[in-house]
Amino acid sequence: MTLDLRGRAATLLDAYRQKGLKIATAESCTGGLVAALLTEISGSSAVVERGFVTYSNEAKAEMIGVAADLIAAYGAVSEPVARAMAEGALAHSRADVAVGITGVAGPTGGTATKPVGLVHFGLARKGSPTLHLERRYGDLGRENVRRRAVEDALSLLEQAIG
C-alpha cells in the first residue's frame, strides 16, 4: 500500500487508541487488505482486534454468522450482506467498530445488475445503527477496485470515530 494510505492508517489507529476503541474487519473482495494495511503499523495490536477474510459464502456463514438465506435472496454482493458482515464481525469479536466489504473486483464475475467495480460496505458500531455505502468504481482493473475499496473502508472507519 502507498505511503499516503499508511499515513491515514496510522492516524486512524492513533484516534482509536486514544478513545480506547477496537476494530474488526470482515473482508471478501479485498481479501484482508484493510487488516493488512492497519497491521503494517507498529502498535496496531492495541486497536486491531481481529480480521475475517470471508471470501466464500460458506466462510461468511460459518465465521461471522451471515445467514445463508440472506445470501441466497440478495447475493453475496449486496447491501444486506455487507451490513450482516459488519454486524457479524462485531458480534464474533471484541471490537467496538467493524467494517464489512463485499464486491466484484473483476475482471470476471460481473453481471448486468452487479457489474465489475460494484462494492458494498457495512459499518457496525456498538450502540449505533449499521451504515451502508455502495460504490460503483467501474471496471478499473482488479488492483484498482480493491485499492479504492480499502480507501473507502478507511473513510468509513474514520467517520465512525468522528
From TrEMBL:
SUPFAM superfamilies tied to this protein: CinA-like (SSF142433)
InterPro entries: CinA-like_C, CinA_C
One Pfam family from the record: CinA
Domain CinA C-terminal: 10-160
Coiled-coil intervals, chain numbering: none
NCBIfam families, per the entry: PncC_domain
Protein's recorded name: CinA family protein
Protein's organism: Microvirga terrestris
Lineage summary: Bacteria, Pseudomonadati, Pseudomonadota, Alphaproteobacteria, Hyphomicrobiales
